[in-house]
Amino acid sequence: MRNGEWPAFTVRPYVCGAIGDFDRVRLEELRTAGPRVRAALEVPGAALFSTGPLPPYHRRDRDYAFAWGERRPQVTASWISVAETYETPGLIDDGERVTLHAGGLGLVDVYYVTTPEAVYFSSLLRPLLALVRGPYEIDWAAWASIVQVTFPLRDDTPYAGVKRLAGASALVYDRATGRVATDRRLPRWVREEPYEAGRSAGEILAILHEVYKEFDDRPLLVPVSGGYDSRLLCSVAVARGADVESWTTSPDDGTDTDIAFARAITRELGVRHRVIAQDAAAYPDDADAVARRLEYLTPHHAWYAPFARQVQRAGRTLVDGLAGGPLLKNFMVSGDALHAASAAERQAAVLRSLSLGAPSTPFLSEEAAAWIGDTVRSGFAQSTSMLHGHRAELPLSVLHTRTVRGIARSPVNLVGPEASFAAPFIHPDFFDAALSVGVARKDKGRFYREVLHTANPRVAALPSTNVIKQPLQRVPLRSTAAPAREHGHRLLTRVAREVPSLLSDELHAVVAQGPDALARFNGWNDRFWLRGLVLFGGWLTDHEGALGDLTPPWRSGG
Predict the structure, then answer these.
(1) CA–CA distance, 545 with 239 (Å, rounded to integer)
(2) pLDDT score at 471
(3) Strand 15-20 relative to strand 118-122, pairing
(4) How far apart are CA 503 and CA 369, in angstroms?
(5) What percent of the chain has pLDDT over 90?
(6) Other CB atoms within 10 A of residue 300 CB
(7) What whole-number distance in Å separates Cα of residue 244 and Cα of residue 463?
(8) Which residues share a beta bridge with 136?
(9) Which domains are assigned to the chain?
(10) pLDDT value of position 3
(11) Burial level of 97, CB count in 10 A (0-12/13-18/19+)?
(12) pLDDT tens per residue, range 166-198
């Protein structure tokens, strides 16, 4: 988003406001810095504005409760119950305290700026910059995580003055004391540690059918790739007699196997299927648009932009397989993590799975790499500290970091807020049941294949990108084609000029050779290292003249 270009908040509103003894001048600066809003609540100690009507789900005398996720609470309850049941952020005013809370996982963002007297908040990051006085200070810890693991950890954002409210967290203003305090809770799936209940594939499938009842009256769009999640969700939708369409696009992985496999799956299911075309020439504009819309928080999803634009016009609810991999097939859980001898070894193994591996040539200087590595280890330990020793520590570590901060951005921030999306796997009933199945039963996808076979044995038997046995036919990558190389080189040049100590001598030499020298970086790992650094270059470019001291901590001793 740039120059006042905002999404159309059709199914999920943009909100902003303040809690505490807020300054009305500063509140007005925030209100006018983002999309046009109207007042939902204005009382001493609390203000809430929204792009569309936002009636409270509870109101009695001076008590109010608001939520702005897609699933609306049905009854009043504690903030943590609302957060973990409906995965929605909200604001609750009980007369004595005002509570601003995130969802249980924190899928829908709440950003905030703290002053001694108040907290100012927004569901978009950029409007809060109006309250950050002077040049913006870089949060180097956030960028360390974005570059090495492709998403921020903890409550970090690229700006030191702006934070993100983590899942299962709240900011609470006490009118009696005049203070704002942080309230962090254990969400249900951590608080009530699941046990191995011996659930069968049939029981898990039956729960998924129950979850689908919430969407029985909606036309559905179930994207199908060649993997497990999408074929399961599409199989269940078809079995329930839903009005279903299925679309597929190239994830720019160099094979387009997803398209070939999806055609076979949708043909077997008898579902209308459409392939969304991609254009290498459009890749730079798509990458820039996605980076701005996701507020430079992850280098993922540039390939998803053409697909998301079509979904927004489809008039159907997108059914997304978010969290299916960690919940059902140990995605990102390595053998080292499963068989670790200690908690420290287990945590290190999960972080290795989530982090990019060593590139083909050093991308970072030795001093930058050392500082970034230490910072990411510390951030990951803090982000997952509540999970240590938990029976489901491994999948939950992935869900609370990569799934929420990186992968969820496509349905939450690129499809939404214009179009509605459903994520059946994070529905509380399914989430709890799937989490109770032990990781040993899920190893190497065994349990997931049982579920797929129970849902539709013919579809389960079709080739999958999760288990590829046949040779792959290579196709050109848009992200390494000439337009992308020109785009990437321009932004890498910015990084090399503005923060030269970040890059290795080897990468400086590559940048000096011009755009075509980037053609050597066509492996998956190299491409993501490059995307993270290019994302940083785009952020530096968009904030030219607005940033403070660019001396990084590995040079300043910080």
Answers:
(1) 56
(2) 65
(3) antiparallel
(4) 9
(5) 91
(6) 21
(7) 22
(8) 547
(9) 15-125+162-185 (no CATH), 201-330+378-460 (3.40.50.620)
(10) 42
(11) buried
(12) 999 999 999 999 999 999 999 999 998 878 888
